[in-house]
Amino acid sequence: MSPSPLSAIIQTLIEKTGWDRMAKREKIMICALVLFATALLIFHFIFSPILDSRQRLQKSLINKKVELQKIRTLQKEYQALQYQTGDIQERITNRPKTFTLFSFIEQQATAAKIKEQISYLKPSEVEGDGPLNESRVDMKLQRITLADLVNFLKGVESRNNAVFINRISIQEHGKDEGYVNAVIQIITFREAS
């Protein structure tokens, strides 16, 4: 019976490498080296990619948890804003139908006796994405005492009418001591048409 081609190839390799002439210790070292190289190749091509993909998956899971926490925080903020919007809509519904921010500010300026210190009043409207639009009045007061300014601000900021101070800038009046100039942005909301 003739030898198989595989066994002939193995026999040729053994003869050419001199395996038969090697000492037992040399054969053990070569077998250990072959096993080590095989283990290294298996680790590099099989286990290493598995470990890398597991680490990527864990990092992705951590990122998704952080994103989920941010989404929950945003959800709570959104719910609070929805509640606040509903609260503001209720106040808007309860105030007089003839209410305008401009006339309200003039009434409060008259009540605080500071109408002469008004340098300008500029009304404007800002279209909103939701059910409410913002009405805004920018105003400048010149040469007013701090006590009169505080009295005016107390009258203007009205939770019942949903009127709020959005921004204020106060500077000393350069000429007279004890007087200030103020630029104020006052806002309210009205239902979108």
Produce the secondary structure layout.
Blueprint: H1 5-17, H2 24-94, H3 101-111, E1 118-126, E2 132-145, H4 146-156, E3 163-172, E4 179-191
Overall mean confidence score, pLDDT:
87
The strand order across the widest sheet is: 1-2-4-3
Basic shape: rod-shaped
Number of domains: 2
Number of helices: 4
Rg over CA atoms = 41 Å
Outline the low-pLDDT stretches: none
Biggest beta-sheet profile: 4 strands, antiparallel
Task: Throw out a few tags for this protein.
193 residues, alpha+beta, Alpha-Beta Plaits, 2 domains, 4-stranded antiparallel β-sheet, 4 helices
What report would you give on this structure?
- The protein has 193 residues and is α+β, with helices and mostly antiparallel strands.
- The protein has 2 domains: 1-94; 101-191, Ribosomal protein S6/Translation elongation factor EF1B (Alpha-Beta Plaits).
- The protein has 4 helices and 4 strands; from the N terminus they run αααββαββ.
- It has helices at 5-17, 24-94, 101-111, 146-156; strands at 118-126, 132-145, 163-172, 179-191.
- It has a 4-stranded antiparallel beta sheet with strand order 1-2-4-3.
- Strand 3 (163-172) and strand 4 (179-191) form a beta hairpin.
- The radius of gyration is 41 Å and the shape is rod-shaped.
- 11% of the residues are buried.
- The mean pLDDT is 87.
Compact description:
It contains 4 helices and 4 strands; from the N terminus they run αααββαββ. With 193 residues, it is an alpha+beta fold.
